[in-house]
Each structure stands twice: as C-alpha cells, then as structure tokens.
Write a structure and sequence with these properties.
mainly alpha; 2 strands; 16 helices; single chain; Ammonium transporter fold; two-stranded antiparallel ribbon
C-alpha cells in the first residue's frame, strides 16, 4: 500500500507541474542585466550545489562501513526532492508576497509563475530572477541534508524523505522569508544574515538536536570512522563550494563578494588551526578529523557575518567558534545524547556563535560601534529561531513517525542501512 501511495504522489506532482507550467518570461527591463554579475552567479550557484555531494562524502566517511551508502544518499537525494518542491511552491513560500512577514504566498510564484529572465529589483537588480531563484534553491537543498548527520545509522529512508519534505515547507521556507525577504519580520528588525547562518546552520543544527532526542540512541553508540580520506575530500569540496555560498550571497561580482570570499577563507583557516592546536593543548592527537571539523565550524560561523566584518574579525570568529564547538562536542560525548556526527555542536552552536558575533562586529551597527539595537534583536531572533526550530522539528518527527516509523528495526540497524534500506554494500 505504501509503495502505491508513494508512486501516486510522484505522479500527481508530475501532472501538476505539467498542467501549470509556463514558458520562461522575458517581460521586464532586460537592459538592467549585468553580464558580469550573471556570470558570477551562475558559477556561484554551481559551487553551492557541489556542497551537497561534498557533505555526502564528509558524512559518509564518518559513519561505520555498513552505513556509508545510506548516509551519503540521504544527502544526495535532497538534490532531487527539494528541487521539485522548490519549483512547485517552495520558492513562493520563501520569497512570495509576504503574509505578515512570516511566510510567502504560495500562489505568488506557484510552479515558477512570474519567475522569468528579467531582474526582479526587489531581490537582485542585475541578474535574471530565474537565476536568483535557482541560487536560493541550492541553500534549500543543503539545509535538510545537514540534519542527517544527527540520526545517521538508524533512520528509515522513506521516513527521512517525508521529513525533509515537511521540513523544507514548514521550517526552512518561513525562516528564509523572515530573514531574506524585503518584508520579512527579522529583516525589518535589522537582523543580519549575509549567507545563511540563521536560515541554514542554526535551523539544521537545532532540528538535528530535536532528531537526536526524538530517535534516541543507537544500539552501538561508538564506532570508528570508515574512511578518513572521504572526510578530507568532503571538507575540501565544502570549503570550495562555500565560496559560492558566501561570496555568491552578494548577488553580484562586486566588492561585497570579494570581502565575503576573503573572510570565508580566513575564518575557516582559523577554525582549523585553532581546533587541532587546542586538541594538542588538551593532550589529544592533532587528527585529520579534527582539522576537518574545525575548518567546517569556521565556515559555519563566518557565514552570517561574511559581508559585514574585517579579516581580523573573521579570524576571531573562527577562533571562538572552534573553541566553543570543540567544548560542546566533548560535553555531548559525556551525555546521553546521540547526535551521531555532532551536527548540533558544529552547525547549531557554530551558527549561534556566528549570529551573535555578527551583531558584535557588523560595520556601523555592531556592538563595538556603540550600537545595541542590532545585538538585542539578534538575541530576540535567536530565542525565536531556537524555539521554532526545535519545537517545529520535533512535531514533524512525531507526525512522520505516525505515518511511517522513523527508526529501522533492531535487526536492520545491526545489519546496516546500506543492506537493509538499499540492498547495496560499500
């Protein structure tokens, strides 16, 4: 019965897309298009898409050998699921006509209606609106994929697909709207998120925490990473793609892109070096895994601040985020929480640190410039986002679990998800 329902849902989506499809519109002032900006944003969009396969390698190398394929596929399948949702109504929920500053009207850009080749000056005045929509899609794809590390090695694949569908609609889209839409609630408060510290990393990290709490511990909580070279490769791909993630968020080939590019590189470097030397200070080995996690945490923390701070401040942000996340992981390891791949300590805590330090250092409006309003609104947004993401995600896990059980059986977990869920082996 479940197989028939799945097929009918996919068939219905395909028919809806066909019936309501429109040609790419060219109405509007095409003279506003800037070839340099358009070229850069095409490249940046491709960079950000590459981050999701990079994440697959990063996570895949960390799990045990029986779960590599399943873990990697959980990231990779988001490329398909979220892309279709985004075109039909996800983009409209995030960037459509504002409803109370909370969410967009799903009919504004339903099935990409009115998403054409001319620029939309409300969002990006020098590139095609269609390109802006697809650049934003890449952020929507990687966000639910980030969550998968928290419940790796124990989630049913079909349940996961249903969860990321609901998460994209009810958690990601409202956050993107509130933060990045010109009429969004957080944006009108002056909350700064240059490239997704709040929308992507905090939401994913906090949803990961809810998932780890809801699903409970694995039968075998400890394991050795299956493939450290995969982790290094994944980190390299993520670091490379992050230049598109942050510098692309300038929405043009301009000075802001250069600033964000430089800050991205230096914060990641600071995070990496801080992590491995702090480990050595604590009489732990300077490991490849530690270097990779430190680099990622630095990237996470600089994301909201990338276009607003100096190089020196970027180094400090990477330094503080690495120390904080390192401590959070050690604390988590002593607790009963089974966040398999440390998604909350890395992305959740890293995102929170980045969000707060953005309000401290942001040019002209930060705390160091004597301005308190931005910092206070960031604190308020932090509380709202944390409660919304944790409670909302927990409720979505509950709903999905009622429809399709989230956890695999004990026998399937012992056999490994590669064999039990996909009939494949590494």
């Amino acid at each position: 019965m479940g197989k028939k329902v799945n097929f009918l849902v996919i068939s219905a989506l395909a028919i809806i897309a066909l019936l309501f499809s429109t040609e790419y519109k060219v109405e509007g002032d095409l003279e506003l298009l800037d070839s340099g900006d358009t070229s850069w944003m095409l490249v940046a969009s491709a960079f950000v898409l590459l981050m999701t396969p990079g994440l697959a390698f990063f996570y895949g190398g960390m799990v045990n050998k029986r779960n590599i394929i399943s873990t990697m596929l959980q990231s990779f399948v988001a490329l398909g699921v979220v892309s279709i949702l985004w075109v039909i109504f996800g983009f409209s929920l995030a960037f459509g006509e504002s409803i109370g500053g909370i969410i967009g009207n799903p009919l504004t850009y339903f099935n990409f209606k009115n998403v054409g080749l001319a620029p939309n000056t409300d969002f990006a005045p020098t590139i095609p609106f269609l390109l802006f929509a697809f650049f934003q899609l890449k952020f929507a794809i990687i966000t639910p994929a980030l969550i998968t590390g928290s419940f790796a090695e124990r989630i049913r694949f079909r349940s996961y697909i249903l969860f990321i569908t609901l998460f994209s609609v009810f958690i990601y889209s409202p956050l993107a709207h509130m933060t990045w839409h010109p009429d969004g609630l957080f944006r009108n408060w002056g909350v700064l998120d240059f490239a997704g510290g709040t929308v992507v990393h905090m939401s994913a990290g906090i949803a990961a925490l809810a998932g780890a709490v809801f699903l409970g511990k694995r039968k075998n909580k400890s394991h050795d990473p299956a493939n450290v070279p995969f982790i290094i490769l994944g980190t390299g791909l993520l670091w490379f793609g992050w230049f598109g993630f942050n510098a692309g968020s300038s929405l043009g080939a301009n000075a802001d892109a250069v600033i964000a590019f430089a800050n991205t590189n230096i914060a990641s470097a600071a995070g990496m070096i801080t992590w491995i030397f702090y480990d050595r200070f604590q009489n732990r080995k300077m490991s490849a895994i530690g270097a990779c996690i430190g680099a990622i945490v630095g990237l996470v923390a600089i994301t909201p601040a990338a276009g607003f701070v100096t190089l020196g401040q970027s180094i400090f942000i990477g330094f503080i985020a690495a120390l904080t996340s390192n401590f959070a992981i050690r604390f988590k390891n002593k607790s009963e929480l089974d966040d398999t791949l440390d998604v909350f300590p890395s992305h959740g805590i890293g995102g929170i640190v980045g969000m707060l330090l953005t309000a401290v250092f942001a040019k002209n409006v930060g705390l160091i410039y004597g301005q308190t309003q931005t910092f206070l609104y960031h604190l308020l947004a932090l509380v709202i986002v944390s409660v919304f993401c944790f409670a909302g995600s927990w409720f979505l896990y509950f709903v999905v679990n009622k429809i399709i059980p989230l956890r695999v059986t004990e026998d399937q977990e012992i056999r490994g998800l590669d064999a039990s869920q996909h009939g494949e082996n590494f």
